[in-house]
Amino acid sequence: MTSPVNIISSVAASPSSLTSSSIHDHIRILRRKDSAALDYIRQPKILHPIENEDLRLLILENISQEAVRAFRAQGYHVDHYTKAFSEEELLEKIGQYHAIGIRSKTKITKRVLSAASKLLVIGCFCIGTNQVDLKAASQAGIPVFNSPFSNSRSVAELVMSELVALSRQYFERAWEMRNGVWNKQSKNCWELRGKTLGIVGYGHIGSQLSVLAEAFGMRVLFYDVINLMPLGSARQVESLESLLSQSDFVTLHIPELPETINMISKKELSQMKKGAYLINNARGRVVDIPALVDALKSKHLAGAAIDVFPFEPAANGDAFDDQLNSWSSQLRSIPNVILTPHIGGSTEEAQRMIGEEVSQAVTRYLNYGSTLSAVNFPEVDLRAITNAEGNQVRICHVHKNQPGVLRQVNDALSPYNVEKQYSDSKGEIAYLLADIADVSPADFSRLRERISGTDANIITRFLA
Ligand SMILES: NC(=O)c1ccc[n+]([C@@H]2O[C@H](COP(=O)([O-])OP(=O)(O)OC[C@H]3O[C@@H](n4cnc5c(N)ncnc54)[C@H](O)[C@@H]3O)[C@@H](O)[C@H]2O)c1
């Protein structure tokens, strides 16, 4: 049998005689001659709901055109609006749709969900999912997808710029120039090369930052609650204190959890080297800001960059003042402190990646039943059905997590060959995917009746 490698090498053997179109013709001929050669590249079969109703998507809040195009390319009917919908508008329209895409302004409440009789999936084209009643969504059998990590690189790059800005004090110098003051300085201005960066939280952002910082010639230490494989020459340290006492720059990349609130307070600031810098692009509550103000005023720290705050203004143009956070004016008045309005992840690239990631997750659920990365649902996926296995049907069964369900479902499936099956649960919800072979159209309705008719059934779909 000719392997694909051989096909490619036989094409490559006489490159000068082949134009680009004749190369493609040549490959087509070889494929026809020996189509089995390509069988090992398992072509996934594109599945569709067996029910013939077209899938309709409601896309709100000016979600990226790429995402809309990707949905249309799947053959879905897409209604696309730039604005957010109010609850009343949603109540009027949601019943027609199988999927909805939103950002943070459209609220998917329990009331909206109870009117969403056909809704299968919610895509949040943003980082957070607070705008969705996640519990009501899972009870209704609706997975919710978001994109928590698409802006990691953007945050890591902002931190790199802050390291340079703080160590060269150029934020201060640029501010003076804007006010017409020439103040050329080199005292206490440093290169990053050879300095130590301490990263607290070596997850998506922390680990990317580690690579960028090493490219600048920095020595990288990190502290994390779990043991992680260091990238490059970075080194994990055993305690926060060890990291704080060795680092010239400390940058925080941890989630907000009960144990991380005020994780950097008076004691931890005093453990930092004199003249060190603190950067917080993680969450507002992980730093005790009054303690930071004291450490900066006493010149124990040489500067800080803060992008996130315990209370943040609701909209652009709103004041960032002492009414919002009692220490705002003090922090604003300290030299070599860079304050930014939570822009760590705000780039065009991150927006585009959010569009790609969420549209792919929604499509994978609609076409293949995969709930990988859903925030409110058990994560279940199955190896693809290949084109060669075209007679298989995938059953996607969302049900209440209660005893006896699998026995009932497997009883219904027992006349068929179950090629593969996977089931998992999360809280009150469980989800089963099963691929079964040789099911006739008459069998579909019988199977549907039996599985959808069980007490625990929430939503059952058949894909083929
Ligand atoms: N400024 C912004 O615009 C912006 C953008 C994106 C993310 N963020 C924030 O950045 C933070 C990090 O995001 P990520 O995507 O890298 O998260 P992540 O979940 O990938 O990584 C977090 C890491 O912190 C570690 N960790 C948890 N608790 C810890 C503790 N007590 N001590 C030490 N390590 C601990 C975890 O083990 C994990 O490795 C999050 O708080 C996120 O909300 C901010």
Automatic annotation (TrEMBL):
Keyword DNA-binding included in the entry's annotation: no
Pathway: Amino-acid biosynthesis
Top-level taxon in the UniProt lineage: Eukaryota
Signal sequence annotation: none
One GO MF term: (S)-2-hydroxyglutarate dehydrogenase activity
UniProt KW keywords: Amino-acid biosynthesis, NAD, Oxidoreductase
Gene Ontology terms describing biological process: L-serine biosynthetic process
Keyword Magnesium: no
SUPFAM superfamilies noted in UniProt: ACT-like, Formate/glycerate dehydrogenase catalytic domain-like, NAD(P)-binding Rossmann-fold domains
Entry's family note: Belongs to the D-isomer specific 2-hydroxyacid dehydrogenase family.
PANTHER family linked to this entry: D-ISOMER SPECIFIC 2-HYDROXYACID DEHYDROGENASE FAMILY PROTEIN (AFU_ORTHOLOGUE AFUA_6G10090) (PTHR42789)
Protein name per its UniProtKB record: Phosphoglycerate dehydrogenase
Source organism: Leucocoprinus leucothites
UniProt lineage: Eukaryota, Fungi, Dikarya, Basidiomycota, Agaricomycotina
